[in-house]
Structure prediction request, 219 residues.
Amino acid sequence: MKRRTPPTLLEKFRVWLWPRRSWLRSSQYVTKRILRITATPHAVAAGVAAGAFTSFTPFMGLHFLLAALLAWMLRGNLIASALGTFVGNPLTFPLIWTATYKTGHWVLQSETVHLDAPPIATASAGIFSSIWQADWAGASAALSAVWYPVLYPMLVGGMLLGPLVAVPLYFITRRGALMFRESRRNKLMRKAAQLRDRAKSSLAERKKAGTGAQADAAQ
Prediction:
């Protein structure tokens, strides 16, 4: 049934923060969608790994695009790459952002990282607002203000931590896709065998009935 009134911005934010299905059911749904994608196990696994990896980058709003580009380079499935970005969600983003920022800060050992830098959310809002208004100078200024203090350390940390999640997830997804297809193939074979047995049984009953009718006619 089609909804009469469109959802408000607050309702959209609430659903994004906490889906109606709950995070457990949403995760199960995404997993089933991934396993049912019509593509080779490598393509599915590479797409999911690409989506997971890009979730560790600080470029909010561009994860789908970056995941699709990386999946294309790896010969992965684009739909799987979009679903793979589910690794980054309101429950995991605080952990991802903290881990990537601290890891990048530790690797860089640079004084350019200041804790009094503008918050990433405020900076991102300023960047997107400037782009929306075609204020490229404002967008460049907002990006420059947050790049070295926050985004650059997060990017460096994401380049290190992303593969630690993406690579194992590739092999897990590939194995899961192979097992799912083997299970589905066996299920189809069992159904085909049942239909064949039913057909043989029905044919045997018809032959038996026909033989009995002939015997009765002969008497």
Q: What stands out?
A: The longest helix spans residues 136-218. Helices lie at 9-17, 22-35, 41-54, 63-73, 78-84, 93-108, 120-132, 136-218. The CA atoms of residues 45 and 179 lie 13 Å apart.
